[in-house]
Amino acid sequence: MRLTKNFYRKEAKDRDCQVRLPLHCNFDSDTTVLAHKNGGGMGMKALDIHGAWCCSSCHDVIDNRVKTELEREDVILSFYEAIFRTQEILIREDKL
After folding, report:
1. What is the rounded CA–CA span in Å between residue 73 and residue 83?
2. For a 10 Å CB count at each end of the chain, is N or C smaller?
3. Which residues are tagged catalytic?
4. What is the CATH number of the domain that holds 78?
């Protein structure tokens, strides 16, 4: 299968949030996007295969746009676990 540009970003549309941060996740698939881990520099993003399907509320916490009572380490761990869950779904669907 030849992947088109932005394939994995488009796959996030209408998907369930895989981050699911307690007290933050809105569970609204209409707001789900492919959230990336930090790419290592200003304005740099990681590869799309290193992203997770993430609702707007969880994405705001991950990117420090909103305050949270959650420990930063727990937020990061939840995000990395979500990357694995996203990849597992794509593998089951034969898209990764």
Report:
1. 15
2. N
3. 36
4. 3.30.50.20
